[in-house]
Amino acid sequence: MNLILTLRILGALLLYLAGTLLIPIPFSLYYQDGVATSFLFAALTTASCGGTLFYFCRSRKELSVREGFGVVCFGWTLFALFGALPYIYSGAIPSSLDAVFETMSGFTTTGSTILTDIEALPKSLLFWRALTHWLGGMGIIVLSLAILPMLGVGGMQLFKAEVPGPTADRLKPRIQDTAKLLWGVYLLLTSLETLMLMLGGMTFFDALCHSFATLATGGFSTRNASVAAYDSAYIEWVIIFFMFLAGVNFTLHLQALRGKLDTCIKNEELRFYSWLTFGAICLLILFNHTSGTYVALTDNLRDSAFQVVSILTTTGFGTADYELWPVITQYILVMLMFVGGCAGSTGGGMKVARVLLLFKHAQVQIFRLIHPRAVRLVKLGKRPVDNEVLAGVLGFFALYIGIFLIASLLLAASGMDLVSGGAAAIACLSNIGPGLGSVGPVDNFAHVPAFAKTVLIVCMLMGRLELFTVLVLFFPSFWRK
Fold it and tell me: In a 10 Å sphere around its CB, with 0-12 CB exposed, 13-18 middle and 19+ buried, how is residue 226 labelled?
């Protein structure tokens, strides 16, 4: 790996982060929360480190795949470390580990929090929490490639390493144009949701923060009770709608805006995602009704739909304590935690495309047992799927389950109970936020031991960067020429 080139790009990214750290200052001055200087000092610290790296680390070599993976992994780590400075400087989160946990949860759009009283946090810090979601949602590296042409290197390696999903759709010949198109769609949907939430009675501040968290599938709210605090059916249905959209491949949004709706309708992953959402909602409504959890069908429909879409898209907003629901409904929600959103969305998890390919591959294997001489290929849409892609999906699934089990074991070793430890592991690995047990929808991660928080921080990073981007750095051959 060309460390000089890698450090130079990381320096440029830190300079960009320093600029974003200045954005909450107007909010701090408007609300007079006294945190403006903390953001200013955090920006100066970040700019000093980034400027030093960018100035002294000069290289004329082209960016290769190795540097691409290195920049993405180390970039996210540095963003979590330096993004935690406002919490530390202001004293809002005195513990450095807790501050990094909160920031990593923000940038990876996980939504797990160590805060016990969210509403007591200064407004500018609440905005920073939401902004970390929004920046991390589409990918901080993609954004940097769109607005920082001074990097001047081939960016496709970064795009492939960063964009979620089995493949990265290249919409334009130049990666900067691709990033700008995706962020244009992202900005449009965010603006539209903000307006609709304000029409429902939310203040501009709350509407903006919740829109940031929704489109990024993050889940950080400005209220202790999350979306339930507003007790508004209109607000909940608006957020359900935009959470569902955020779980869809953003290239399909672009196609829809261009009038190519037939492309969206024919997309097999989108159809599977839609039917999975609809089926899970129906099951939750059924089990909640038969158990007597809800009397009114409208309340049952609203809460069931919200929790299914929130969990499946890995957003993590809450309107009900699903731990009070029948155990079967909790089991369904846990299964959805592993699935996540569509490939190319801001959602986490294994991705709908991978789960769909796993089902298709299993179906073909069973068919071949019955008809040994028959030739049948795994297809996605009408196109055959390469064996290399299938091997990657199977490998990813095995790694995902293995890392989940190892993380659960480590959390159990730290003193967490079986349910809480397992739920925390999948909640952070799939970038969901809430889990079950002591980390349920009405709880937080403040009580989690320090070692367990460190494990969960690593899980957030690995889940957001889809395992391989992080794991490849641990192979000695990766660092050799």
Answer: buried
